[in-house]
Specification:
The protein is 35% helix and 23% strand. With 146 residues, the protein is of the alpha/beta class. The termini are far apart.
Length: 146
């Protein structure tokens, strides 16, 4: 029998304050995937601090495969980017503020069976990824804290 893993996308706030709530949610999603006939899950995240890091550590502790999709903040802009929109971060490096949105779309394009969205204080990146997933017909399980 070949492994048939459920790809689960994770999007969440960089300031996610409740690691246990997120870990419990991921455990329940894993259990649900097994009940639905999958042999396990693979967790895809955007490599940011907060919820992504919490999910990554949880996956590592539980032997779950991880698919990392980091945004290319310092890389070239997309053809849709407006001239002069780049910004400078605290380290003095220029970056494209739309890189996170491009990464979110790339994650959606990989067609996970579900996105877990850890939304805290109206995180714009989490909202963007959730909106894109829903528009693509991918279910989104949103959890909140605080």
């Amino acid at each position: 029998m070949t492994a048939h893993l459920a790809l689960i996308g994770l999007t969440g706030s960089r300031r996610w304050p409740d690691p246990q709530r997120l870990e419990d949610t991921l455990l329940n999603v894993w259990h649900d995937a097994l009940q639905d006939g999958y042999t396990g899950i693979e967790l895809m995240h955007g490599c940011a601090e907060g919820a992504d890091t919490i999910g990554d550590r949880w996956a590592d502790r539980n032997g779950i495969l991880v698919r990392e999709r980091a945004a290319d903040w310092e890389g070239p802009c997309d053809t849709e980017c407006q001239p002069g929109h780049r910004r400078r971060n605290r380290r003095g490096t220029d970056y494209c503020p739309l890189a996170g949105h491009r990464r979110n779309q790339q994650m959606v394009d990989e067609r996970p069976v579900l996105f877990v969205a850890a939304s805290y204080r109206n995180s714009s990146g989490t909202a963007d990824c959730s909106r894109r997933a829903k528009a693509a017909g991918i279910p989104v399980l949103t959890i909140t804290a605080g």
